[in-house]
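Posting for a labmate who doesn't have an account.
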Amino acid sequence: MKIARIFVLLGLGAAVLASPAIGADQPAERQRWGFSGSLAFGGAGGDYGNALEKYVSGNYELFKTSPNGGWRYGAGFGFGSFALKPPFQDEEEFALMQTYLFGAKVFRPDRGIRPYIKFEAGLSRLHPRAAALGPQPPPEELPPGESPTEPSTGFGLGVLPGVEMALGGTGVSLDASLYAYWSTTNYDLSAIGQPNANSGTSLGGRLGLTWIPNGSAGGPGPTDPWGVHKSYGWATGEVVGMNLLLSQVNEYVLSKNFNQVSPRSWWANIEEGFTYDDNDFRNNQFLHPVNGQMYFTGARYHGHGFWVSGAYAVGGSLIWECCGETHPMSFNDLISTGIGGTALGEMTFRMSERTRRSCPA
């Protein structure tokens, strides 16, 4: 499938951009990985601006810095949405998922106030939740949080000037910037009295946090008894990365209709609170613990002990229940993933450690 091929090429491009340059003059340890998360707010323009307004988005980025910190290269994921203009303002949101590569030039990287300019390019995926844009009448027995609408995929470009402010000597900083242009294949908006649309803009502000683990320290930090460097940053990055990968698979490969997440769906889930999920046994008692095991081992293999790794398993599940799907949050899924994943993860961790110790060096 054409879109799948594009997505694979984007992934390969991210790996190439993130890899160290061959023959670099600077020591490899000066090149550091970092993460950033941000919230964006703005308006809508272009063709889609006739029907949409009030853009919000949650964004996550993984990047690698150049040896002197002057450049950053990586991949990003945006989970945004728009409200429909009156008289459809009470309909569910119009979701916009963005998956992109980026490069950023950071000016004065050794200072506390760091201006930068960032360039983004990648996939844009519009997938509304508004029932008015789906088949009429709506299908019966639609699961809570799902919508029967069709997606539209295209590309997005962004030029984001901004400024970053360091917070002490922690490797954490605040940043603010602007947002971008995107286009899709034609989307039929006749159900809400608008012509077909295929391009739009979302101009506004973005405020976020950037974290470069051990970014202000001289080395990677202490190790556990096995010589593994303890890292909260990498453990957190792996947990969030697993959820991001699952989200991309749900949207682009499986075409699920519970994946159109944004700050609007996150807040709606928090307001509704926890419910009971009656999915089948295989899903709740097998897939969820296996997923929790991945969260657990993501922390265990970065130098953390049993209890801290268990907290990562519960935390990764909570992030997904709140922010990874439009289904209401489920307390039994949280238990199956967090507690079941901890039990399964510790078992496989001990098995692998025993195997490793029994093998000759």
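Reply:
Got it, the structure tokens are right above this. The chain has two domains: 2-20+31-217, 220-361.
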